[in-house]
Design brief:
- The protein is of the alpha/beta class.
- It has one domain: Aldolase class I (TIM Barrel).
- It has twelve helices and 13 strands.
- The strands form three sheets. The chain has an eight-stranded parallel barrel, surrounded by five helices. The chain has a three-stranded antiparallel sheet with strand order 5-6-11, with no helix packed on it.
- A hairpin with a 2-residue loop joins strand 1 and strand 2.
- The chain starts with a helix and ends in a 9-residue tail after the last helix.
- The mean pLDDT is 96.
Amino acid sequence: MTPVERIGLALLHRLDPEVAHGLSLRALNAGLVPLPGTVTSPRLATSLAGMALANPIGLAAGFDKNATALAPLSRAGFGFLEVGAATPLPQPGNPKPRLFRLSDDRAAINRFGFNNDGMQAIAARLANRPRSLPIGLNLGANKTSPDRAADFARVLATCGADVDFATVNVSSPNTERLRDLQGAAALTALLAGVMEARTSLANPIPVFLKIAPDLTPDEIAEIAEVALASGLDGIIATNTTLSREGLKSAAKGESGGLSGAPLFEKSTRVLAHLSQATAGRLPLIGVGGIETAEQAYAKIRAGASAVQLYTAMVYQGIGLAARIARGLDTLLQRDGHATVAQAVGTGRNDWL
């Protein structure tokens, strides 16, 4: 971590977490944060659902909900970005406070509730996005919608022309009954609508599904079967968890989704089971608790073709993505892998 990052994080941690997050986005846009630019090598360069990535380290959805900091984030060392979630109508989300730092656990709890500016405003920003790396959009549903399943297709139809991939997010724990859409029948119907909306795009982009970590092996197998039958292009594993096992921080009792270090093992086990269930037929993106290059590598070896991070930057700064990418390059070289793809799934059995 650079001295500038260290000082900046110390100041931000004196503030309310949501206020601090907003200031971090402003600092990025104001050019106050040193950015490393593209990090790549022949080993790191890879492909995800047909998209060329300079490296397999992505930014998870939620950091830039409204696509307001795409230009600086494109220079922050990531191989790809995901913004959102976006809903058809603007949505204020749940009452504040709704974001909590769990510093003793290197974690966070949020219960935002899909707060965002709405798909029209986000689509306008995406139309002016940088084109130097793949950028995707997390699709959400309005809390008051009479047809939440249809909301996902509406957002894709509106924003799909200016993104490189889209993610169906039915795994947020902060919109009541949203996770019910992960059931086989409901998920099949929802995905049919989304895939139909994709066919209307001039450039039909890859569509991913983001799943929860709080699933049994049987539920994981069922989701894998639905994903394969629906023609999805990949699965993101995982979103935040409702578990509070082993937490020490004072805010551990707050409701919402837990992200960060405590999620690493749970999410990686889900990833490995999903890799086994899909048998290499779909690329997987590993998310949850990544703080180091070693952990990113562990996700890849568990079955991920690429990974995403977010919460660890709260504690280690925006330069973390570049540091992890460079460290991953060293680990791949150490183990004799000429490419990221050669390492995918090589340690899956360790997590089953």
